């Protein structure tokens, strides 16, 4: 699992650095392997020292995360294909310009009814891409939004320290925002694409959080509205 995460992350960095086919691509792969091995070792050592009761609580977190990931990714896949929104960089390419350029722009709420097979074949032949018409919503931003799962950790472990709880919100929001902005910068998406990609991830997390941790009791998560998860471990309270 760690290998897939780091391979995708460093592959994404390599894509932005135009490292395909260079020694940097190989270096990125080696770094991804080392990071995966190191992370696996650290996690294994950490779990070895964790109490059984805490492990049971973390299992609840894992279940919630899996539900979150499945819902978010299925929604993105279901929406992408029928919408068939053309990417900015596809419209801005030489081939895209020859096919009408930005006249092919469509709003996020409009559907093309699927990818135009003939045009998709043109882009695959010219640039080797098969996703020229899969702009909405952003899959990369949704994937980055999986870090929203950190928001559930304080609820599962009973962490009430305001600084830790704030960090579990700030980091995923900032990380997802950085990925979203980078996707716009490289011309892969429009703002609405990344907005919906991130929102799908967040709402999926909120659903999983309510279903698994709070058992559909509420959607409260700020300040005085905070309601601790059932059977919290007091040792984690600040």
Instruction: Describe the sheet with the most strands.
Output: none
Alpha plus pi helix count = 10
Low-confidence sequence ranges: 232-238
Which structural category fits the helices and strands? mainly alpha
- CA radius of gyration: 21 Å
Q: Count the beta strands.
A: 0
Mean pLDDT: 84
Beta-strand residue fraction: under 5%
What global shape is seen?
globular
Domain count: 2
Order of helices and strands: HHHHHHHHHH
How widely separated are the two ends? Answer: 32 Å
Specify the helix fraction band: 55-70%
How would you characterize this protein structure?
It is globular and about 65 Å long. It has 10 helices and no strands. 28% of the residues are buried. It has helices at residues 2-16, 23-48, 52-83, 88-92, 94-98, 117-127, 139-144, 153-157, 162-185, 191-213. The model is unreliable at 232-238 (pLDDT under 50). The longest helix is centred in the N-terminal third of the chain and has 32 residues, at 52-83. It is mainly alpha-helical and 238 residues long. The protein has 2 domains: 1-49; 51-84 and 136-236, no CATH class. It comes from Candidatus Limadaptatus stercorigallinarum. Its main location: membrane. Keywords: Membrane, Transmembrane, Transmembrane helix.
């Amino acid at each position: 699992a760690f290998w897939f995460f780091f391979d995708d992350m460093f592959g994404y960095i390599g894509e932005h650095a135009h490292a395909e086919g260079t020694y940097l691509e190989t270096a990125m792969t080696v770094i991804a392997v080392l990071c995966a091995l190191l992370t696996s070792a650290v996690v294994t050592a950490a779990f070895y020292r964790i109490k059984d009761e805490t492990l049971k609580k973390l299992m609840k977190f894992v279940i919630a995360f899996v539900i979150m990931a499945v819902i978010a990714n299925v929604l993105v896949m279901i929406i992408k294909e029928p919408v068939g929104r053309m990417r900015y960089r596809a419209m801005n390419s030489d081939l895209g310009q020859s096919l009408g350029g930005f006249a092919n722009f469509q709003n996020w709420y409009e559907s093309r009814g699927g990818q135009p097979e003939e045009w998709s074949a043109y882009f695959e032949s010219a640039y080797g891409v098969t996703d020229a018409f899969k702009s909405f919503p952003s899959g990369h931003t949704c994937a980055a939004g999986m870090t929203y799962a950190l928001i559930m950790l304080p609820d599962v472990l009973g962490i009430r320290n305001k600084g830790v709880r704030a960090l579990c919100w700030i980091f995923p929001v900032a990380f997802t925002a950085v990925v979203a902005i980078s996707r716009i910068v490289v011309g892969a998406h429009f703002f609405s694409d990344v907005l919906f990609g991130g929102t799908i991830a967040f709402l999926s997390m909120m659903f999983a959080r309510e279903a698994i941790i709070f058992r559909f009791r509420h959607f409260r998560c700020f300040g005085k509205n905070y309601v601790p998860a059932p059977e919290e471990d007091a040792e984690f309270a600040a």
